[in-house]
Design a protein that fits this description.
six-stranded antiparallel sheet, five-stranded antiparallel sheet, about 35% helix, binds flavin-adenine dinucleotide
Length: about 550
């Protein structure tokens, strides 16, 4: 065992591992990259995280940089849950519920708690967190906050940042801070602190003041955006100030989250589901535009294309039997309407049906909950697609999460088909059409030189077009190592430099998850490309994305 591991073993309460098998297991997440950690620690409590941060800070002061990467369940698709230094694996011990107020709908948890378990607990109080990702059964709340994750209900309910009330965060030097909405008076108190926390508040306050206009102009006009650092929600119109938005979506590059306090929503009446078969991207666009104007925003507007359904039918002939039959329509649009007032909900569902009937060749409105489950199987077919290899070919998460302004949805669909045609690749499209956010995973063989070269060519070309459409490279899966190199292309140079300043303020020595999100180039990530790809970490329960 190396010296660092030895020191850690003597000073932390949790387990420290350096065995070859453990390091190999933790060398991958669900991305296309591989990076072996030196040491793995299962922190027992927040104090362990503090000690490790303090230790690496002190070494960094003397010129030795040891990266620290927080890891939840490692389902990250962007290569952000792997690192070459110390890996802090939170689910082992940090899974406690610290506080729950079912009446007020607030819950505080340790960051390593399994999101699915928390959701089950909340359901017993008739509450839930609607921004949970589809991967909630085997991922953590800390990972969802650090990625600013979201699921198919974000069209109506928003993303994780809409539900975070406050955080406990271990800073790069080991200090612990609590974030949350501060009044002017509370902010002034923070600004006067003679600690690293005080330094951070002063630097961020000054940075926001000096760059007001630039920050206002930096916003990309999409419904959700996980790229970069969130500079716009720190200061609010009512004079309040909150550092939480900076940590949310920062992928462990600004601080290590030990606790999360979340707001929740009450469970509403049983939803109504609609399923429409459509011929063209134009019809999908027209329907989405009108559905978004309804008096109640649908809780989901989801899309799958015929390529996905054909592939899934060829993998498993029984999966779609009795649900939808070939020849499949070009697109299936699934629309859910929910709400707490049943009569309003039903009225809106009827209006949605009218809209869909105008644009679709076939529409079904379903109130029976069991039959709704059958319809959802169409959308959930993406789990079969993304979990299935064709020989040496794997469906790879390369360009799986771009988002464009909703009125450019059909352009996005056309861009995807054209690009895959040009590259002679099989293509399937699915995702959150109502938000302009689509998923695609081309089948490639990472063991072949030609396909490895294609990876970055496809990424380059796709993001050029996403930028032209005014979109972002990531709506919910975040930048990581995969999209970090493209951050400076979707934001202006001035905004990118602000992101770099933010990183320096929180992490002056670069110990926190280096190589992720910021200050990373394609040349640095190319050697990390895996030679084979599989979803071993999650095969026991494969969700749809
Ligand atoms: C099949 C599949 C489906 C998916 N579906 C969705 C989806 O619907 N929506 C969606 O948004 N995502 C989805 N994802 C991506 C991923 O599952 C989510 O981002 C999830 O929230 C990550 O949680 P995790 O515990 O696995 O985090 P990890 O993968 O372990 O980590 C994710 C990031 O968070 C950081 N991190 C973790 N814990 C902490 C902490 N305590 N403090 C600071 N930083 C921390 C890590 O360093 C890393 O940067 C999917 C992934 C797969 C494989």
């Amino acid at each position: 065992m190396n010296k660092v591991a030895h020191y850690l073993q003597e000073h932390v309460a949790g387990e420290v591992m350096t065995g070859t098998d453990a390091r190999k297991y933790f060398s991958t997440d669900n991305s296309i990259f591989c990076l072996t950690p030196s040491v793995i620690v299962y922190p027992k409590n927040e104090n362990d995280i503090r000690k490790i941060a303090r230790f690496t800070w002190q070494l960094a002061e003397r010129g030795r940089i040891i990266p620290v990467t927080a890891r939840g369940s490692g389902t990250d698709l962007s290569g952000a849950a792997i690192g070459s230094g110390i890996l802090l694996v939170t689910p082992a011990h940090l899974g406690r519920v610290k506080f729950i107020d079912p009446k007020g709908g607030v819950v505080s948890v340790e960051s390593g708690i399994n999101f699915g378990k928390l959701q089950q607990l909340l359901f017993t109080y008739d509450r839930f967190v609607p921004s949970a990702p589809a991967s909630l059964e085997y991922s953590t709340v800390g990972g969802a906050v650090a990625n600013n994750s979201s699921g198919m209900y974000s069209i109506k309910y928003g993303v994780m940042s809409n539900y975070v009330k406050g955080l406990r965060v271990v800073l790069a030097n080991g200090e612990v801070i609590e974030t949350g909405k501060l009044s002017k008076k509370e902010l002034n108190r923070k600004l006067g602190l003679a600690t690293f926390e005080g330094e951070i508040y002063r630097s961020i306050d000054a940075l926001l003041e000096e760059n007001r206009e630039l920050i206002a102009k930096s916003v990309i006009n999409v419904t959700k955006n996980a790229s970069g650092y969130n500079l716009v929600d720190i200061r609010n119109d009512d004079g309040s100030f909150d550092l939480s938005p900076l940590f949310i979506g920062s992928q462990g590059t600004l601080g290590l989250i030990s606790e999360v306090t979340l707001e929740t929503e009450p469970v509403g009446a049983e939803p109504v589901l609609l399923c429409a078969y459509m011929d063209s991207a134009d019809s999908v666009q027209a329907a989405v535009n009108e559905l978004r104007e309804l008096e109640i925003m649908p809780s989901a507007i989801e899309l799958v294309d015929d390529n996905l359904l054909n592939t899934v039918a060829s993998i498993n002939g029984n999966y779609l039997k009795g649900v939808i039959s070939p020849p499949y329509p070009k697109f299936v649009l699934i629309v859910e309407v929910d709400g707490d007032k049943e009569h309003k909900l039903k009225r809106t569902a009827k209006k949605a049906e009218k809209i869909l009937t105008k644009h679709a060749k076939q529409v079904v409105l379903e109130i029976d909950q069991d039959k709704q489950k059958d319809i959802w199987k169409i959308r959930e077919a993406s789990a079969i697609y993304s979990g299935h290899n064709q020989g040496q070919l794997n469906p790879l998460p390369l360009i799986d999460d771009a988002i464009v302004p909703v009125d450019k949805l059909k352009n996005l669909i056309n861009v995807i088909y054209a690009l895959f045609n040009q590259e002679h690749l099989q293509v399937a499209v699915w995702g959150h059409a109502g938000e302009g956010n689509l998923h695609v995973q081309p089948y490639l063989n990472l063991g072949q030189v030609g396909d490895r070269q294609k990876v970055f060519r496809i990424i380059e070309e796709y993001y050029k077009q996403i930028r032209e459409l005014g979109g972002s490279t990531t709506a919910q899966y975040n930048d990581g190592r995969l999209r970090g190199p493209y951050l400076s292309r979707i934001y202006s140079n001035d905004v990118f430099q602000l992101f770099q300043k933010i990183k320096r303020i929180f992490d002056p020595y670069g110990t926190l998850n280096p190589g992720v999100k910021i200050n990373v180039s394609t040349d640095e990530v190319k050697p990390l490309l895996r030679s084979e790809y599989h979803l071993d970490h999650i095969y026991d329960h494969l969700p749809f994305s």
